[in-house]
Amino acid sequence: MSAVTPIAFVSQGDAASVAAWLQCLRAAMPEEEILAYADLDETRRAQCRVAIVANPDPAQLKLLPQLQWVHSVWAGVERLVADLDQSGLQITRLVDPRLAATMAEAVLAWTLYLHRDMPYYARQQQARQWQPLDYVLPEQRRVGILGLGALGEAAAAALRQARFPVTGWSRSARSIPGMQTCSGMEGLAQMLAQTDILVCLLPLTAQTRGLLDAARLALLPPDAQIINFARGPIIDDAALHQALDAGQLRHAVLDVFATEPLPPDAWPWSHPAVTVLPHCSAPTDSGTASSIVAANIRHYRKTGEILANVDLKRGY
After folding, report:
1. What is the DSSP string of 268-280?
2. Rounded distance, CA 208 to CA 235, Å?
3. In this structure, what are the phi and psi dihedrals at residue 7, rounded to the nearest 5 degrees?
4. Among 12, 135, 275, 286, which has the minimal tally of Cβ within 10 Å of its Cβ?
């Protein structure tokens, strides 16, 4: 199949972001004509069968009448799935080994931040207090990972290398050499009950929204800590606030929120038991992402096969 139709790049990002993505994508596949949506006239829009997207405006995608395939440059696609649920379009999310490695690095870094009591020592410094805590071996602190996709597997490997015992949970049963795994709601309850540091890497779907509610947070051992690098609405915000206020949970590292950027008056900013991050745990590398998108599009041009990997029913 020859490359005869233009490819639309559709994004709600600012002009600088769009220009940067176009530069990387064009460098990765110079044989293609890749145009920002704003540069497509009506004739060119009518020719597009493929769109590469980064947080697109769904109204713009609907104005591409021949569109068949939407390739995201992000790993998270819950908003895209919601917007395109009834469209019949095939969707590909980014699966990038570099992204998995970056996430594993972040999970290990912030797990160590909690494991080595850094929030406590920061408060000690502010109060000019000198009081060391007893050291806890990594082997004595179990980490639970919610989500055993590519990101979860990479994070688990990094944690195990650092000598943490790891339990992983997924909706359906998985078997991963070298680590304990569990699945289903019964398995989730069992995992939470033995988890000292809980890391959330789940996709946001109808089934995972609010998964960590007050009842499930209460299953965690006293003094447990949480890292959320997935999506904000997976954790019930009010329940988390209450658990931290009550001292049921010791600390939460939050990189994702229901509303982003986090509003200035939101409670996590000033809570002494919360570390707020600006959705920075695992940013997409535009270079490697563009190379992966290019390989998928070349396969499509050669064979006509769309390498879609998103199940609209599951939501990811």
Report:
1. GGG-TTEEE--S-
2. 9
3. -115, 130
4. 135
Q: Are 10 and 89 in contact (CB under 8 A)?
A: no
For residues 255 and 228, the answer to whether their CB atoms sit within 8 Å is yes
**The whole model's pTM is what?**
0.92
- Over residues 235-260, the mean pLDDT reads 98
φ, ψ for residue 50 (rounded to 5)? Answer: -125, 135
Give 200-239 pLDDT, tens digit per residue: 999 999 999 999 999 999 999 999 999 999 999 999 999 9
Whether residue 110 has pLDDT greater than 50: yes
Rounded Cα distance between 285 and 300, Å, is 23
Provide the edge-to-edge strand list for the sheet that holds 34-36. Answer: 34-36, 7-11, 50-54, 69-72, 90-92
Where is mean pLDDT largest: 48-57, 84-93, 174-183, 304-313? 48-57
Catalytic residue selected from 171, 231, 250, 251: 231
Hunting for tokens 């658990």 — which residue is that? 243
Residue 311 token pair: 């199940």
Is residue 118 within 8 A of residue 132, CB to CB? The reply is: no
Model confidence band, residue 78 (pLDDT cutoffs 50, 70, 90)? confident
What is the maximum span of the chain, computed from C-alpha positions, in angstroms? 70
d(CA 156, CA 201): 11
Rg (CA), the chain: 22
186-224 burial: b if 16+ Cβ within 10 Å, else e: ebbebbbeebbbbbbbbbbbeebbebbeeebbebbeeeb
Q: For this structure, is 299 an active site residue?
A: no
Tell me which of 279, 298, 299, 301 is the catalytic residue.
Answer: 279
| Each residue's pLDDT tens digit, 37-66 | 999 999 999 999 999 999 899 999 999 999
H or E segment to which residue 21 belongs: helix 15-28
β-strands 197-200, 274-276: how paired?
unpaired
